[in-house]
Design brief:
This protein is mainly alpha-helical. 76% of the residues lie in helices and 0% in strands. It folds into 2 domains: 27 residues, no CATH class; 211 residues, no CATH class. InterPro entries: MotA-like, MotA_ExbB_proton_chnl, MotA_N. This is MotA/TolQ/ExbB proton channel.
Length: 252
Amino acid sequence: MDLGTFLGLASGIALVLGAIFMGGTLMEFVNVPSVMIVVGGTLASICVAYPLEEVFQAFSAMMQIFSSRKVKDAEVVNMMVRIAEISRREGLIALENIHTDNTILKKACQLIADNADPALIRETVRIEIGSMKRRHAVGEAVFKSLAGYAPSFGMIGTLIGLVQMLTRLDDPKTLGPSMAVAIITTFYGSMLSTLLFLPVAGKLRSRTLNETLQLEIIFEGAKCILENNNPRLVYEKLSSFIAPKERRYERR
């Protein structure tokens, strides 16, 4: 589990709930019509703006942000160095037998084993990066749109509440509760936007940048292995992609 994502979301909710309980009760902030307007209206709008399969894809990506990153950048560098060591010791053709769950890395090993031209590897990785960015951009765009729709529907709910309040001006006792209900709708929209939708969009963007960097590491490693099959030189080149404190060459 991604501890940062979980702690951030949990602490944000806890702080808001704490502030609510310090000044009243939770039931004062529960209003079913407001939920219907904000949540229902926001989901309806996103289904109009995007194909349904892209909406499902975006929410599926949201669930994945709670999982920890399986592979760190330094681990990708070390994998490419080990591949260089295998290719130098057993020959390029041995890379066909490399077993990995990373499909891009598997493809790179196959291209190296086939002694492919570096230009072909570059073009293959470029296509993979472009395809990955397009897939991730869908989820990011959906949540950025959700972050814009939620406060707007919150304002719509507030206007509805104000209209209903003004129609009951002859009963002063209802003005306070009616105004509170009207403002709660804006509260719902702002909470969803700032605590959920915008952070999720940011996290998806961060994941995209990280995966792009790892694909670049794989490409540079593959090219370096083909040009000069020296594990030490491969590491020295690829270590530029990672922070200095993570750089440590371990020869096997």
